[in-house]
Amino acid sequence: MEFTVSTDTRLDVVDVTDRVAAAVPAGTDGTVTVFVEHTTAGVTINEAEPRLLSDVRTVLADLVPDDGWAHDELDGNADSHLRALLLGPSETVPVAGGDLALGRWQSVLFVECDGPRERTVRVLDE
């Protein structure tokens, strides 16, 4: 199953937990892998509290400056690739009885590093 995520800014964080949960077949036990098939976006699990999401954007921007990278000579988005590298393209989530087995404060977060864009997120059940 797959769904799209639209973002409004270059560096954005979107809670996709409900969309991932909707992709899980009823009664399933096992795991799902949430995978973004792009080199300038990532997936992570953390709390979806708005101030924390703002902090995530800030820390990624602080860790990886916008410019000064060799890859920028090609297409000007090295910072996006490097930020996505820190996040990774996937997360594996346990599933019990068709429900995501996340902790109380855990959410599945899609992180855009080269927006605004529309991206594809795949959910693969195993």
How would you sum up this structure in a few lines?
By secondary structure, the chain is of the alpha+beta class. It has helices spanning 17-22, 50-63, 72-75, 78-87; strands spanning 2-6, 12-15, 30-36, 41-46, 90-96, 99-100, 107-112, 118-125. It has one domain: Jelly Rolls (Sandwich).
What does this structure look like?
Helix content is 27%, strand content 36%. 27% of the residues are buried. It contains 4 helices and 8 strands; from the N terminus they run ββαββαααββββ. It has one domain (2-125): Jelly Rolls (Sandwich), CATH 2.60.120. The model has no long low-confidence stretch (mean pLDDT 96). The chain has helices at residues 17-22, 50-63, 72-75, 78-87; strands at 2-6, 12-15, 30-36, 41-46, 90-96, 99-100, 107-112, 118-125. It is elongated and about 50 Å long. By secondary structure, it is of the alpha+beta class. The chain has a 5-stranded antiparallel sheet.
